[in-house]
Amino acid sequence: MGAAAGAVTPRPRQRPLNWRRTRRGSVPYLLVAPVVAVLGVVLAYPVYSLVRIALERYGLFELIRHHGVYIGLANFATVLHDSVFWHTMLRTILFAAACVSLSIVGGMLIALLLVRVSGFIRILITSGLVLVWAMPPVVAVQVWNWMTNVQNGVLNYVLTELHVGNYFQHNWFASPFSQLAMCAMLIVWGALPFVSITLYAALSQVPHELVEAAQIDGAPFWRVFKDVTLPVIAPVVYILTTLSILWDFGVFTQVYLLIGQAALTPANYLMSVYVFEKGFVISDYGIGSAISILMLVTVAIMSVVYVRKMLRVGEVT
Amino acid sequence: MRIRLRGRLGWNAVGLLLFAVMVFPVFWMISTAFKPADEINSFTPTWLPGSPTLRHFRDALALPNFWADVKNTVIVVLVAVSIAMVLAFLAAVALAKYRFTGRKLFIVLMIGVQMIPGAGLIIPLYVLLGRFGLVNLTGVIVVYISAVLPFSVWTLRGFLIGIPKELEEAAMVDGSTRLGAFVRILLPLVAPGLVATSVFAFITSWNEYIFARIILNGGSSQTITVWLSYIFGSQRATDWGELMAASTLIAIPVVIFFLIVQRRIAFGLTAGAVRG
Q1: CB atoms within 10 A of CB A216
Q2: Which of A107, A280, A285, B216 meets the CB 3.0–4.6 Å disulfide criterion with A195?
Q3: How many CB atoms lie within 10 A of CB B174?
Q4: Which helix (H) or strand (E) is A282 found in, with range?
């Protein structure tokens, strides 16, 4: 590093200050190389291999032989002609849309509430949210299992006591809709802390004078929110929404464990579960890979927008 | 003034209700773990354990493979996080302190990679790890390293940028070498960020389920999340007390660590795109 820097800067006083000029050459590439190598081996190579397997007949026999049989686009043709695929895709999109809207709207309401409550209550709620945030998903699934348990789950008890209806021994896992609704509840519960705390942080960036001025002018709450608050926090809302879409579209753990392996049927598949079932239950890795690719392409299209936004963040700082 | 005060009281009441609803599942887990069996199986639940007992915790700790799988998880997580942190730190230094061709591409890669849903890569990873005889804990370590790398690079970069250049420059003006400035000035300043990022990577790996489930595929060694999902899975009648005690025990390290780093990492989360 010294030689190149010395040649460029004759005045030694300036040398240490001239960062951009001194820090050229191979050093940054050497620093980045290990990460690139690891991601290349553990991500790029599997992606390549995913494409290969998708173009092959690859079942248990081929898995043991470590070698598939090339069959062109036949797997994709099978998948795209399978109504289960299209139903699963549609179901996943609707499921993700429901989870995302509930998380963002709910998170926004909580954030707005946090602004209004007194200091002690705010600390209490925030601590509670952080506690929920910290719960491992697998643990949360077990708690949900216990709370929605058909025999004496506390959810049935509370709903009956509140006179919402007679939920004595109500089975929340009787229909695909109800099963997925339980999963959505669990996912939204887990997502609310992140969304609301981030939105609350964003709300504190909104200039106080603007809100007060609008209120003094007699603007109703909704107008103040829409015309003063929302424009300021819009970038954060945007990032949170995109992230939630991507996460909820690819969710696996909560759905797989809460519904339970035994109760999974084509009627309640979501994309990730569908890939898992095709690959690891039916052992048709070729078809499973084709579905994975279609799923990844869908996610890639959705995330292009997000990555571009984040890139701008990366340039500013 | 009075109207405003009354309004605030109303909001406080709503806030308390929200707190109760959000925290309830966690409360219910802990409360159940301490209840004797007859209180758990009763059709009219009691909110707090009437006669608290530690029996379920004792039983949970004695469940087959609990300690072995905790040990597996600790080893996997420690090895994966230590390796990932060293690699991520180097890359973060490059991103924060250097401009170079391909920097933008690298950032896109770091952010884009995090968008990939794990389920999309389970099949090729399983097939490839099988080919190299890595369908075991080593395979899980390899996958976890790459899983935590992108957000670690991104978050560490954020911490490094926060360090004023002048400090480092001052050290060099005083005759320090670049390495000396790095070790004596940069490293101590970035240490809290490094700790926070490692803890977050620790939590992510500790909580991970799908890759462990697939790579270890029902073998004798499991990670603790897979253990928890299996332990009562096959039985019809679940011992809820034991399950909640085990759940509490598995959540405790994560919750403690999370509470320590949450504040520090919260901003980086939005930037680094990771959810707990």
Answers
A1: 8
A2: A107
A3: 10
A4: none
In what helix (H) or strand (E) does residue A56 lie, and over which residues does it extend? strand A56-57
d(CA B229, CA A142): 8
The predicted pLDDT at position A71 comes to 93
Query: Which two structure tokens, joined as six digits, stand for A273?
Result: 């579960």
Minimal Cα–Cα distance from A307 to chain B, Å?
A: 6
Residue B273 pLDDT > 50, yes or no? no
Are B55 and B39 a contacting pair, CB within 8 Å? no
Residue B254 contacts A, CB cutoff 8 Å: yes
Domains and CATH numbers, chain A: 2-54 (no CATH), 76-316 (1.10.3720.10)
Contact (CB, 8 A) for B272 and B155: yes
DSSP string, A213-233: HHHHTT--HHHHIIIIIHHHH
> d(Cα B72, Cα B69) in Å, to the nearest integer?
5
Q: In chain B, what are the domains?
A: 2-53 (no CATH), 65-272 (1.10.3720.10)
The confidence score (pLDDT) of residue B2 equals 53
- Residues of chain A with Cβ-Cβ distance to B254 below 8 Å are 134-136
Q: Cα torsion for A194, A197, A203, A205, to the nearest 10°?
A: -100
Q: Can you say how many angstroms the Cα of residue B151 is from the centroid of all Cα atoms in its chain?
A: 12
**Closest by Cα among B207, B204, B164, B197 to B86:** B197
| Interior angle at CA A80, CA A283 and CA A58, nearest 5 | 25
CA B276-A296-A264 angle, to 5 degrees, is 70
Compute the C-alpha angle A253/A105/A212, nearest 5°.
Answer: 145
What ipTM score was computed for the predicted complex, to two decimals? 0.87
Query: How buried is residue A197: exposed, middle or buried, by Cβ count under 10 Å (0-12/13-18/19+)?
Result: buried
Q: In the structure encoding, which two tokens stand for residue A25, read together? A: 């050459």
Residues of B in contact with A193 (CB under 8 A): 22
Which residues, 6+ apart, have CB-to-CB distance to B168 below 8 Å? B181, B182, B185, B186
User: What pLDDT is recorded for position A253?
Assistant: 94
Q: How many CB pairs under 8 A join A and B?
A: 303
Distance of CA A243 to the CA centre of its chain: 5
Give A198's contacts in chain B (Cβ within 8 Å).
266, 269-270
More confidently predicted of B180 and B81: B81
Question: What percentage of chain A has pLDDT greater than the value 70?
Answer: 90
Helix, coil or strand: residue A197: helix
Average pLDDT over residues A114-132: 91
